[in-house]
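Pipeline run #58 for the internal structure catalog. This entry was flagged by the ingest filter as a single-chain record with no existing model, so it goes straight to prediction. Upstream metadata was stripped on purpose; only the residue string is passed forward. Reviewer on rotation: M.T. Logging verbosity set to normal.
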Amino acid sequence: MLLNLFLFIIGLLLLYYGADWLVKGAASMARSFGLTPLVIGLTVVAFGTSAPELVVSVVSAVQNQSMIAVGNVIGSNICNIALVLGVTAIIMPIACHPMTVQRDMPIMLGISLYLLIISYNSHIGRLEGMSLFGGVILYTLFNYYIARKEVATYWKQMDGDGGASSDAVTDDSEYISSRMKQAFLIIVGIGGVVVGAKALIYAAVNLMRGFGVSDKVIGLTVVAFGTSVPELATSIVAAWRKETDISLGNLIGSNVFNILCVLGVVSMVKPITIPGGFIESGLLSDYLVMMVISAMPWLMMTKGYVISRANGVILLASYLGYLGYLIIKLKPNL
């Protein structure tokens, strides 16, 4: 019991300091390379926090359990938006750049729709996997190209009117000029949030078992939540440090990475077949939930470009509702 409590505390500390270093390094890197924080959030931060899911999914595919990757991606994407973004907005309302609403969110929704279309025949083959993986390369190049065009205007506005994202980056005490130190903080930060999440979840599972909670219930709550803990910690710290572009970009980019890279690589390694059929298995319902929840913040941000605390409550309630739906659906097996 004492060991698990110790691991739980260590996990929390690693999450906090790892997320803090990651955000600080990413914000400084954005300024140093002449990129916007949003682009760094959409790519470097998002891909880094989602890397463990890629490893787990590829290992599952090699062990002929590639369907686990599909469930992991859908569940993680729902959790990222409904739970992580919801909790983050409740703690600190999130202001976003207009381009997030006009470009980045529609891209994420379009990619989600493409996944639904190629999954409809209950099979994601290697050719579809190549198209997905090619998409993540194009997505990264597109973000870099757009950032180079927009960056001068962005930083001029941030320096001139004290925009939300400029507070932390333009502060001399926060800005890190050395690119080696930037990379070091990002790598160590990603490692901190990933290892911290693992320690936290491991300790929480053991503590819950000690109180007599069944493994089924633990799987539906703590373990399912665990895959999004790195994104949650990073987004909360980024929002708290007023790096809202990194916070939101982390979640959008993570969802894009999950679909394009994780499922792309998995289906190239081992084509994915959906047992029982796409509709009959109930997977269509989960896809639709992912689509609806992904669209909710987009609709919320169309007026005022802010996700308010009230919006955060709605998102969190949506996640709790989905969790309740899963429990009811799996009740005969509990």
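catalog note: Residues 59 and 65 are 8 Å apart (CA to CA).
catalog note: The chain has one domain: 2-333.
status: ready for reviewer M.T.
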